[in-house]
Design goal:
By secondary structure, the chain is mainly alpha-helical. It has helices at 17-46, 52-76, 83-101, 107-113, 121-148, and strands spanning 2-5, 11-14. The chain contains five helices and two strands.
């Protein structure tokens, strides 16, 4: 089964059917579990409530795994799926969501997420707005690329 595609939408790496159907989702589930365990430990150590952006990112791996799994199976079954456009769609939506939430984080929460930590709340607000707008613009560019390419 194809598991990797070139920029021209041509499969350039393959795996056995068992690994593609069971191994890759298992690996992604393990990665997800590790991410959640470490996030929970950090939040308990620092005694903070989990920011909304972290909650969104916890759902990112399962959703992307599921969507890419469907694409991988569809391509194997002979469907015409534009992998590059699908990935641009997924990433474009993710960038827009993240860009929307970055400026809404409080300064106290940003101290636990960003390293090095912002020196003042004023500088954090300025940087977070720039980052938020940048993420949204990149997301829109990715979505426009779907139409143009």
């Amino acid at each position: 089964m194809p598991i990797h595609f070139s920029i021209n939408n041509v499969a350039d790496n393959y795996a056995s059917k068992n690994f593609a159907l069971f191994g890759i989702p298992s690996i992604m589930a393990i990665v997800q579990a590790i991410c959640i365990i470490f996030t929970e430990k950090v939040n308990k150590l620092e005694n903070i409530k989990k920011p909304r952006i972290v909650k969104i990112m916890e759902w990112f791996i399962p959703i992307v795994t599921f969507l890419l799994y469907i694409i991988m199976v569809e391509v194997s079954l002979g469907s015409t799926v534009y992998v590059g456009k699908s990935v641009c769609l997924i990433l474009g939506i993710l960038f827009i969501i993240i860009g929307n939430y970055i400026p809404k984080m409080s300064y106290d929460v940003s101290k636990t997420i960003f390293h090095p930590t912002p020196k003042s709340e004023k500088s954090y607000r300025k940087v977070s707005k720039i980052m938020g707008y940048s993420f949204i613009i990149i997301g829109i560019v990715l979505l426009v690329m779907i139409i143009l390419v």
